[in-house]
Amino acid sequence: MIENRENSIEIDKENFRKIGHQLIDDISDFLSSIDKKPVTVNKSPSQLQSILGNNTLPENGTPATELIPRVTNLLLNHSLFNGHPKFLGYITSSASPIGALADLLAASINSNVGAHILSPMATEIEKQTVQWLAEFIGVSPSYGGILVSGGNMANFTAFLAARTAKAPKNIKEDGLSNISKKLTVYCSKSTHTWIEKAAILFGLGSNSIRWIETDSSNKMNNKVLEETIKKDIENGLQPIMVIGTAGDVSTGVVDNLKGISTICKAYDLWFHIDGAYGVPAAVIPKFKKLFHGVTEADSIALDPHKWLYSPLEAGCTLVKNPQHLIDTFSSHPEYYNFTSTEGETAQNFYEFGMQNSRGFRALKVWLTLQQVGRNGYQKLISEDIELSVLLFDLAKKHPELEAVSQNLSITTFKYIPLNYKGDNDYLNKLNEELLNELQTGGELFLSNAIVNEMYCLRACIVNFRTTRKDIKEIIEIVIREGRETHSKLQLK
Ligand SMILES: *Cc1c(COP(=O)(O)O)cnc(C)c1O
């Protein structure tokens, strides 16, 4: 009977409260004692599969009262915790607890933020979030944009807008094969791999990327950039965009953005900034001049799930003239009746990016921005940078460490045995081994970077739980494990 529809998917009010309260209790216990847990588990995929139980698709249902406690246990005991104060790997931040509550609420309302009519308040919240993010990094709040899943998608979205704006107009109908001049794009050698994916996926091909060399400070060499553009034009190619990086993924270097913008203006090119990691540091008055030129960008990618501490996933594309997004992504199928409300034209986010149905990822970003505020972020981001400088200084002072680089909140360094006289190859091998030991040991989590052909340990601090004490302990752990790894390798 479907009059009084009893079914196995609904959870009645009492049970929902009971399961929910228990879950919230478990999460708050977890968050308040996260520093006591190992950062990660050292288990192989097959060990994890056997813990998981290799059952086939369940034929019959299991009550939620059993499932939620079971999965809570499973995850709390077999995960890597990037919210751990000693997690400084890659560029993955600790997540704001309010973001977890936001996701629960967002999933409960289940707004489809593709169209205004399907998500009236959620769409307005996302619009406000985009505007606040523009204000946060110090560009005009008239920039428009969209939240996407992360930095790659944010850069892809901007790349496509640039292609529409700067490639011949007929590519929409005729595609890329019918254009006479080969399109080219420019970026420094230290640009994140998204650019290669974009060039391949969006039809330009990887040979269309001009990898511009970097200068001694690891910034794109703007002189070489301009010469390369000139030469390409002379050779009948069509440059369309330059990508500047604001915080490169290995060492945190910010390109000379102002210089790039001048070149883009001179040659009528789209100026995109990949600020996925670093651009939020522009909120700190002291760092403003490092990001000089950011206001000239045609588009900017940033990642709230990095230095704004939003839970995964949240990236954002900002575009100076948002009409470029509509020109790129809008289509009007007959079965959409999303026109206007109350005489005003509503913004439909499906016209701003690649997704059609879209979740409400803005909520966690919007709430964290309000909970912390501009001042709170200035403090958090400054402290991350200070801790990174502290790590660099401690490494510099230590006789068994070499401090290699420090930019924004990324420090690279390496372990060198006392009185070491050998070659660089062994040091590379030693530090690689050491990193493997550290990553599986569970006490801390670092990643690696290759700097000047040296294999380095890399710490990126986007973690509001890390303290000075953690940094000092990290040094001790690296030294202890470094010595051990060295003597193990000597015995081999
Ligand atoms: C992290 C990062 C990306 C990729 O972002 P995801 O969120 O991992 O997709 C791109 N560019 C830079 C500079 C980054 O730091």
UniProtKB/TrEMBL annotation:
Pfam families listed in its UniProt record: Pyridoxal_deC
Record's keyword annotation contains Lyase: yes
Cofactor(s) needed: pyridoxal 5'-phosphate
Keyword match Glycoprotein: no
Keywords: Decarboxylase, Lyase, Pyridoxal phosphate
Superkingdom, taxonomy of origin: Bacteria
GO function term, MF aspect, one: carboxy-lyase activity
InterPro entries per the UniProt record, alphabetical: Aromatic_deC, PyrdxlP-dep_de-COase, PyrdxlP-dep_Trfase, PyrdxlP-dep_Trfase_major, PyrdxlP-dep_Trfase_small
N6-(pyridoxal phosphate)lysine PTM positions: K306
Protein family according to the UniProt entry: Belongs to the group II decarboxylase family.
Identification of the protein by name: Amino acid decarboxylase
Annotated source species: Bizionia arctica
Taxonomic lineage from the root: Bacteria, Pseudomonadati, Bacteroidota, Flavobacteriia, Flavobacteriales
